[in-house]
Input
Amino acid sequence: MRVSSALLVALPALALAEDQVPLVDKVKGWFNQAQSYVSTAIPAAATPVEAAASKVAEKAVANLTLENWRQTINSSASAAAAGPQEWMIYVTGGNKTCFGLCGNTTEAWNKSVPVLAAAPKSPNLGVIDCEIDNILCNTWAASPPSIVHIQIPAPLPDQSAPAPAVRFIPLNRVNTTALNITQLHTEKKFEQTEPYEGIFHPFNGLLVQFGVEVPVAYAFWAFSKMPSWLPMVAISMISRNFMSRRAQPAARPAGAAPAAQ
Output
């Protein structure tokens, strides 16, 4: 009875570990390997989980901020000589920046992380929380929930660095699943989104070239904090001042005769 119970525990673990093997080979493999799971059924069942946790630990999700994102991304690129580096960055928020509607996409992202970390040529993973680091989101013009997909090309023979390809991929707040996110990498569905080449490009956009991306981001942040009634009041005061000036009679030159009545 104990052996049968151990086998029942072992077989699902083997099925998960060999999901890429044809069915006939699976069946043969299960019974050939079942003996090794009998005496240590419980530890063996926990092994895939421990392996996945170890893999995720190796591929940690970087918490990107305004202060560290350049160093974090650039260090990963310089450390890889084999080829281009891929980043998948989840942009999330809270009640103010995502209207409290990022819960589903955050759950889908969390479920996709172990799959992405275990995938062949797995991408680097990162998170930006616009509720905490709104200025960074404004410098990128990134809105939650979304995935920022970055491809950093390998250096050219002359050691010059080509411009990274950046894609802003919005996520449906209701229907996004972990499969939708993982397919961006595993099936290269990120290629369905055209690379962004506008002024908010994080690496070589016009604002970056002039070094004003952070001041502009603060200006957007200040505007977002402005009460909705304040612009209307300012416009009303300016228009009244303009109309009152136009209504005033023109000044009469010195020595000129008064106008005839």
